[in-house]
Design goal:
This protein is about 40% helix and about 20% strand. β6 and β7 form a beta hairpin. Bound molecules: 3,4-dihydroxyphenylalanine (DAH).
Length: about 350
């Protein structure tokens, strides 16, 4: 194209207007064909640059009659505006296209699961808790929760464990200010629940509990329990036994079960329940008929209302169920262990 626009001393008005028209056509054509930003920039310099076609044409205007010069000037200005607009439009299209190409090439699916990050799983203690709670919900129990920071009354006194009672020795805990302590069992939820809603009640209360125990394969200062409480008219030991048997059968299947006489301050009589697993008897829960002293302490007529309570350790259940040898495995976040559930 360069060679077409020669600077000459003897140009006529017609020649220059022709040159401008030719430039217009060719430039418009080249701009529409440009596919890269850089190409457009090169074209812009070619047309409007200091040594560009337009300045060459304008440079030859000196040879024209003074009256003719504005005609060429006006025409050249018009052309310049027109081409600048064309370049801007083309630039926009090129940018738009490179963006669509980029999106298409990245094949971005915002709904796709991310790669390289494994799916999380429910912790075995959570799923065991849910399994236990589910069974009781199926028997008509409702779920209650209580605070992990308790006071002496709910954790001990109201459960028939007065100060200096030897049962406190086995449940030493972490004491906070103002008579507060970390609960040693979920049994205080029994009291909180009976205070709020008078019998009949059927509740199941899962939660975290604390003891001043040294860590070993079967002990942890923080562990989990599920509490069960049923108070109604006419409940007796057969209801306790039937409920515990139904629960254990649903959870473990048909394992041999043994009831052993025991002692808890808040139940009378009290029993511990064992299941036979791989030839061994393993203790899985404590239970008993709620001691009338607990009910009377809450102003509930123990001649009319009777019931049973049970408490079980989630870790213990989970360990027996899955044949886990060491309680510490639950708390060390080792994915090789957790992945198996
Ligand atoms: N709270 C007892 C403990 O942590 C477990 C327990 C035993 C709960 C007998 C009960 C029960 O409700 O009746 O050792």
């Amino acid at each position: 194209m360069q060679s077409l626009f020669l600077v000459s001393k003897n140009v006529s008005l017609k020649q220059l207007i022709d040159d401008l028209e030719r430039l217009e056509k060719e430039a418009a054509n080249n701009i529409t064909l440009a596919v890269e930003k850089e190409e457009l920039e090169a074209l812009r310099i070619q047309f409007f640059g200091k040594k560009g076609h337009l300045s060459k044409i304008l440079g030859s205007m000196g040879a024209l009659d003074v009256s003719e010069r504005p005609i060429v000037g006006q025409r050249a200005n018009l052309l310049k505006n027109q081409l600048q607009e064309l370049i801007a439009e083309r630039l926009y299209k090129i940018k738009e296209k490179s963006l669509t190409d980029l999106i298409a090439s990245e094949d971005l699916d915002v709904t796709a699961p991310s790669t390289g990050r494994p799916f999380g799983k429910r912790h075995p203690l959570i799923s065991t808790t849910e399994q236990i709670v589910d069974i009781f919900c199926g028997l008509g129990y409702s779920v209650h929760e209580g605070p992990e920071i308790e006071n002496d009354f709910y954790n001990f006194a109201a459960l028939n464990i007065p100060e200096n009672h030897p049962a406190r020795d086995m449940q030493d805990t972490f004491y906070l200010e103002n008579d507060l302590l970390l609960r040693t069992h979920t049994s205080p939820v029994q009291i909180r629940c009976l205070e709020k809603s008078p019998p009949p009640v059927r509740i199941v209360a899962p939660g975290r509990v604390y003891r001043r125990d040294a860590v070993d394969a079967t002990h942890s200062p923080v562990f989990h329990q599920v509490e069960v409480l049923a108070i109604d008219e006419g409940l007796d030991f057969s209801h306790l036994r039937g409920t515990v048997m139904a629960f254990l059968k649903t959870f473990f299947g048909d394992l041999p079960v043994r009831f052993r006489a025991s002692y808890f301050p808040f139940t009378e009589p009290s029993v511990e329940v064992d299941v036979q697993w791989k030839g061994k008897w393993l203790e899985v829960m404590g239970c008993g008929m709620v001691d009338p002293a607990v009910l009377e302490g809450l102003g509930i007529d123990s001649e009319r209302w009777t019931g049973f309570a049970a408490g079980l350790g989630v870790e213990r259940f989970c360990m027996v169920h899955h044949g886990i040898d060491d309680i510490r495995r639950f708390y060390t976040s080792d994915l090789r262990f957790l992945d198996q559930f």
